[in-house]
Amino acid sequence: MRDIVILGSTGSIGVQALEVVAANPELFRVIGLSAGSGNHALLAEQAKKFRVPVIGTSAKEFTSDSPAGVSVICGRQASPEIASMSADIVLNGITGSIGLASTLAALAAGNIVALANKESLVAGGDLVTKFGRDRLIPVDSEHCAIFQAMLAGKRTEISKLVITASGGAFRDRTDLENVTIDDALAHPTWSMGPVVTINSATLVNKGLEIIEAHYLFDIPYSQIEAVIHPQSVVHSMVEFVDGSTIAQASPPNMKGPIAYALSYPQRIARASTPIDWTESNTWEFRPIDNIRFPAVALARKVGEFGRGMPAVYNAANESAVSAFLSERIGFSSILRVLSKTVEKFESSSLSEIRDLSDVSALEQDTHQVAEEIIKKEENAA
Questions:
Q1: DSSP code per residue over 208-224
Q2: What is the mean pLDDT of residues 302-324?
Q3: How far apart are CA 381 and CA 376, in angstroms?
Q4: Hey, where are the domains in the chain?
Q5: Which residues are CB-contacts of 264 (< 8 A; sequence separation ≥ 6)?
Q6: How far is 167 from 189, CA to CA, in rounded Å?
Q7: Chain mean pLDDT for the chain
Q8: The domain 2-117: what is its CATH number?
Q9: Which of 92, 206, 214, 301 could form a disulfide with 165 if both were Cys (CB 3.0 to 4.6 A apart)?
């Protein structure tokens, strides 16, 4: 039986991870949970159902009744503290770069991290990978697919990683000027949180995943490609030097990647529903239109630039998406805010990221610059 910690337990990844645990009680024991400040009632319910001894929230106080015998940790350090508990595996399902501190805390404690928080690698890839890539198991469906497909050959035999993208809500829409929030949140194949869904609509999510893949697998950016795959069945592919391409395919459901990460190197029977081969299946692949969706090319550019620029990319996008969801700017402004913020920092002398405080300071500076650009977008509207 494995002792596991789940960070971000009330979010989409956390909830599904607990469903995997509930379906396999003989395999997993949950020893710690953490969540943000938005759903203390659900966190308390999870703690009671799974008999979790320690839970945490980023809020200053816990606003729900905690089950008897459960220790509650409150404050910004709650998730990192719980991530430091001795466990067989820590699943980081926190959304945003705030999850970086917990990833580092888990690794520093000697834990293996099942990583669903891509921003940990985007904002602090060098800090995370210094602990060793063998301590990271990817949970994102694309990187889980690559992780599995890479087992088909030697590292030196890999010629390319191919990350698939659903294309988001607007893959077939050319006019993006009058997009509403509801339009952008109407993802055609996946059910995700609002930030990730907006990132999918702009394809920023795919840009973040290219940076994540670079750090996870130590592959040059020139050997990482992204393609549109509307059906979201082939989650990613690995091309080898002999011309062979190995793909991992399954219906769009995060239960499979979550179960694989928690149980690796074993597989859990019936973790997710397989493809129905009694029905006709058509899988389409097409290149990304970099004119309509410049986020992917920009991510590759900042990744190659290095020196904290990926953290700038991520923080600027966080500011822009927040402004869009609060109806301060339009959908098309998200990419303008992102690109203009990156331009501001390209002309500055960024230093190498040395520690978590460097990341925090750079993100704060980025949010300030992005806010100035957002205000200009508001005034121009």
A1: HHHHHHHHHHT--GGGE
A2: 96
A3: 9
A4: 2-117, 144-380
A5: 137
A6: 10
A7: 94
A8: 3.40.50.720
A9: 206
Tokens, residue 93 = 């399902």
What's the pTM?
0.93
- Count CB atoms within 10 A of the CB of residue 290: 12
**Are the C-beta atoms of 367 and 319 separated by less than 8 Å?**
yes
Query: What is the average pLDDT across 208-215?
Result: 97
Looking at beta carbons, which pairs linking 10-13 to residues 24 or more positions away fall under 8 Å? 10/35, 10/36, 10/38, 10/39, 10/42, 10/43, 10/46, 11/35, 11/36, 11/93, 11/94, 11/95, 11/193, 12/93, 12/191, 12/192, 12/193, 12/254, 13/91, 13/93, 13/116, 13/139, 13/254, 13/258
Token pair in block for residue 115 = 């990583």
Closest CA relative to residue 179, chosen from 187, 170, 188? 170
Domain 144-380: top CATH class: mainly alpha
Give, rounded to a whole angstrom, the gap between the first and last alpha carbons of the chain.
57
**What angle do the packed helices 141-149 and 255-263 form, to 10 degrees?**
50
CA 63 to centroid of chain Cα atoms: 28
* Euclidean distance between CA atoms 74 and 36, whole angstroms: 10
Q: Over the stretch 5-18, which tens digit does the pLDDT of each residue have? A: 999 999 999 999 99
CA atoms 221, 227, 229, 230: torsion sign: positive
